[in-house]
Amino acid sequence: MHILQLVGIGLTATVLVSVLRPHAPQFAMMVGLIAGIVLLVQVVQNMESVIRTLTELSTSANVNQGFMSTVLRIIGIAYIVEFAAQVARDAKEGALAGKIELAGKVGIVILALPIITGVIDSLIHLLP
Predict the structure, then answer these.
(1) Which residues span the domain enclosing 89?
(2) How many other CB atoms are there within 10 angstroms of residue 51's CB atom?
(3) Shared domain check, 72 and 43
(4) pLDDT tens-digit readout, 53-87
(5) What is the 3-state secondary structure (H, E, C) of the chain?
(6) Residue 74 CB: number of other CB atoms within 10 A?
(7) Which residues cross the membrane (predicted)?
(8) Within-domain flag for 53
(9) What local confidence, expressed as pLDDT, does residue 1 receive?
(10) pLDDT band, very low/low/confident/very high, at 93 (cuts 50, 70, 90)
(11) Confidence of residue 3 (pLDDT cuts 50, 70, 90)
(12) How far apart are CA 17 and CA 15, in angstroms?
C-alpha cells in the first residue's frame, strides 16, 4: 500500500474513534484496534523488500547470517512492543503499557546477548 493510503486509513480511523468514543467507547476501541492491526500488517508486508535487501547486503559483506537474523528479530520485537504499548495507552492503561515496554526491552537484551558476546570476544582477540 502506498503511504498516502496508510495515512488515510489512520486518519479515517482517528475521526471514527473521536466520533464514537463519547457514545460507544467499546466500539471506538475496536475501530482503533482494527485500524492499528491493518496498518501494522501492511507495514510488515512492505518490510519484506527491506529485509531481502539487508540480507543480500549482509551476505555480500560476509556478515554472519545469525547476527542479521537476530538484528531483524530485535527490530520486530521493538515494533510489536511499541504497537502493543500504544494500544494499552489508548485503553488508558499507562502502567500496563510501561510493563509491556519493559518486557520488550528485556527480550531485546536477551536476543542481543550473543551479539554482545561476539563483539567482546572479537575485541579480546584483537588486543595483545
Answers:
(1) 64-128
(2) 14
(3) no
(4) 888 888 888 888 888 888 889 998 998 999 899 98
(5) CCHHHHHHHHHHHHHHHHHHCCCCHHHHHHHHHHHHHHHHHHHHHHHHHHHHHHHHHHHHCCCCHHHHHHHHHHHHHHHHHHHHHHHHHHCCCHHHHHHHHHHHHHHHHHHHHHHHHHHHHHHHHHCC
(6) 18
(7) 27-45, 106-127
(8) no
(9) 61
(10) very high
(11) confident
(12) 5
Cell of 49: 523488500
Residue 109 has pLDDT above 90, yes or no: yes
Residue that has been written with the C-alpha cell 509491556 in this structure? 100
Number of domains in the chain: 2
Single out the residue of 17, 7, 63 nearest to residue 55, CA to CA. Answer: 63
pLDDT for the residue numbered 46: 82
100 and 41 assigned to the same domain: no
